[in-house]
Design brief:
Blueprint: H1 19-22, H2 27-45, H3 48-58, H4 70-75, E1 99-103, H5 109-117, E2 122-126, H6 186-198, E3 202-207, H7 214-220, E4 225-230, H8 233-241, H9 253-256, H10 264-271, H11 286-304, E5 307-310, H12 311-316, H13 318-328, H14 336-340, H15 357-375, H16 382-390
Parallel strand pairs: 1-3, 1-4, 2-3, 4-5
Helix pairs in contact: 11-15
Length: 391
């Protein structure tokens, strides 16, 4: 990922060479010291004293919800006359014509974005959080993914919006991927609002990085419509690999890094603090990691989106599914033949060239067991109940 190359302003220019650069030949010592510090810190956190220190340090810092003052704020006016008042009318986040598309990478979400792009009266934004910064002509490049059929120049809708650079944060691509309704990120909210405000007609924003942020989207844009797209996990897994022969099923985590084209490990490093079963030590193959993220993404989409659509249904019955989708958001002016002509059916059941069905089922069942245990939906509780009766 490229970073900004802007030189530091004169008043911020460093006055001396950083310590780690002056002692670059001693980098190995720095690495060893770092390993020692983290190892000793980990040991400390396992003790009662260490846990007490952590608990005291973090007390009050992990509670995202605001104090229970909402009712008082809404019902109690300021005590002095003439003070400014909140203006809740005509706010961007209250608009009812907003459409958010959410789906995992390689789920067909680009196809859905491109369909809306062809509809009169819609402005369809491609992946607003993408690190290529579509609003920045000097940064975004000119290439497109050749597997995205009939999709050209993702960035056209962003032209003239360099102001977005004041708000964009690259950390959005793989940090704080889970955001509940109380998560505070005014820069993200304003970034999205600018896109909405600058859109001629109905704004449609297609995301690949917000499945676990849908509670936040529902809270801050309560009248928007959220469309969730999902795809069969086995085919989606094969699509993320691009070249099946380069990473056969016999390979594992040790060989996976060069084939992790869509941030799977970056995502799990962030999400494991909310979903601890994403630790690789609990798993035997990267597909299990992929499946767990896919399954959680599906659950979030079903719960927080207004409708969920299978990619396979879209490409197999395009006329029926497109019409139903656009009817949901009350869109009438479109050329159905033109839209269906954009759909190219992919190779079906590509996963059969990767592994036999029993291989996939074994790993999927392991993941389902982890999810069932974590979310407490195991069906057989009789043993625990009988033991409690004997006490």
């Amino acid at each position: 990922m490229s970073k900004s190359s802007d030189p530091p302003t004169p008043e911020r220019r460093p006055t001396s060479v950083p310590l780690h650069e002056r002692f670059a030949p001693w980098g190995w010592l720095r690495s060893r010291m770092r390993e020692w510090v983290f190892r000793e810190f980990h040991k400390l956190t396992l003790t009662d004293d260490g846990k007490t220190i952590l608990a005291n340090s973090l007390r009050g810092l992990l509670h995202n919800a605001p104090p229970p003052l909402g009712h008082e704020l809404a019902s109690t006016a300021p005590p002095y006359a003439g003070l400014g008042q909140a203006r809740l009318d005509n706010r961007t986040d209250q608009r009812t014509d907003i459409v958010f598309i959410t789906g995992r990478f390689r789920s067909g979400s680009t196809l859905l974005w491109n369909l809306f792009r062809q509809i009169p009266g819609c402005t369809s934004y491609y992946e607003p959080f993408n690190e290529r910064r579509w609003f920045d002509p000097a940064h975004r490049g000119t290439h497109t993914d050749q597997t995205h059929r009939h999709a050209e120049a993702y960035w056209l809708e962003y032209d003239g919006m360099t102001v977005l650079g004041d708000y964009y944060r690259e950390e959005w691509i793989d940090r704080n991927l889970y955001m509940d309704e109380r998560f505070w990120d005014p820069l993200m909210k304003r970034y999205i609002e600018i896109l909405i405000e600058r859109a001629p007609g109905r704004p449609v924003l297609q995301f690949n990085r917000v499945d676990f942020r849908l509670p936040w989207f529902r809270w801050y844009f309560p009248h928007a419509t959220i469309l969730h797209l999902y795809r069969h996990p086995r085919d989606q897994w094969c699509s993320t690999l691009r070249n099946l022969e380069a990473f056969p099923k016999e390979k594992g985590f040790a060989e996976y890094a060069p084939h992790d084209h869509f941030y799977l490990r970056n995502w799990t490093r962030d999400l494991r603090y909310h979903f601890p079963f994403l630790e690789e030590q609990h798993l035997t193959h990267p597909y299990e990691l992929f499946y767990l993220i896919w399954r959680l993404s599906y659950l979030f989409g079903r719960k927080f989106a207004h409708t969920s659509l299978a990619y396979e249904e879209l490409v197999q019955n395009p006329e029926e599914r497109i019409a139903a989708l656009l009817n949901l958001i009350d869109l009438r002016d479109y050329d159905l033949n033109r839209l269906t002509a954009l759909i190219v059916r992919p190779e079906g059941a590509r996963w059969r060239r990767y592994a036999e069905e029993s291989w996939f089922q074994e790993r999927e069942s392991h993941c389902e067991n982890l999810l069932a245990e974590y979310f407490g939906i195991l069906t057989d509780r009789t043993t625990n109940e009988s033991h409690s009766n004997l006490r």
